[in-house]
Specification:
Mean pLDDT: 97
Low-confidence stretches: none
Strand order of the largest sheet: 1-9-8-5-4-2-3
Distance between the termini: 20 Å
Number of domains: 2
Order of helices and strands: HHEHEHEHEHEEEEEHHHEEEHEHEH
Number of strands: 14
CATH class of the largest domain: Alpha Beta
CATH topology of the largest domain: Aspartate Aminotransferase, domain 2
CATH architecture of the largest domain: 3-Layer(aba) Sandwich
Radius of gyration: 21 Å
Length: about 400
Amino acid sequence: MVLKFRGDFTQQEPIPEAGIEAAVAVMRHGRLHRYNTVDGETAETVLLEQEFAAFKGAKYCLAVASGGYALTTALRACGIKHGDAVLTNAFTLAPVPGAIQGAGGRPVFVEITPDLVLDLDDLSAKIASSGAKFLMLSHMRGHLVDMEALIAITDAAGVQVIEDCAHTMGANWNGVPSGRSGVVGCYSTQTFKHINSGEGGLFVTDDAEVMARATMLSGSYMLYGSHAAGAPNETFEDIRLETPNCSGRMDNLRAAILRPQLADLPAQAERWNERYRTIEAGLNQVENLTLIERPAKEYFVASSFQFLMPNFDADQIQTLVAACAARGVQLKWFGADKPVGFTSRHDSWRYVDPQDLPKTDKIMAGLVDMRIPLTLSMQDCETIATIIKEEVSKF
């Protein structure tokens, strides 16, 4: 009998009961808007911002409508001008170049390494050739580059770093939380991220002026004083009159759902990593399959799994993906000519000037990706690894 996996790669765990109860309380009183409070009440969004700032060790936090909105807002708050070059990973997802384009910037892609992180040599070269003063660093699929080396390069060149931490909310590099090395850290609370409100985002910084501009951009009107994790009121004196309102607030309902999940995140991170390590062990030393090396300084939160098939051509990888799908294992391939679902690559985004990225193209041609929802049991992870191993061994 052929072994099959009968689970679901897109099924999330339910919202914790504490989150459900808090959400019901918000629905019962009806004050979903963050600025609609009664005397003595602290809005759920304000509480979430305080708790997330403390979790990240940041001075300031802003809850917004999505991770992509946080990215665009970060660029605007950091002073981007129309046509400015913005460096970013050649391996990322569409919201990253979309945020750069939406803020009026011009994406300039940086090559990646086989470990799926930014190539620091190419970063230095692209800083010199483009004159860029912004790097939107995408910790794509939860892989952290050597942040100490990266910041040394960007600081020396006067480049502001905005971290896209959609896949690294609970991660750190050498003890420094993801999102705390650059000027701004941006996080997503979309369904497939580490805490789930369907859509949503969080923005952290220690820069009071950047925070004030982001708050006004988010649509605070003149109610910025209610942001307990916000910039000091005096910071807004001129910024409040010079900054457009680009409404992108988070509401109290989503914040209520998120707060208990944030409290649970360290424990959830360990559960994700246990699943990752089980799949990794099952695929270790499989011929023609290369695992991604995780550095000792990296603490990751593995809600997905990647491996490389460097010796396989496109037809072989497509055959492998189809064979695994027939046995219930959903793999995604980043080397396809056309974008599929959430999966795309730099030449899929035709609003960006075409760029020559041979190293990245070679890596992505053999890159296979898979979600790891927490609804998978440890036995599920062993089954999934066995199926992939058996199908790879047929070639």
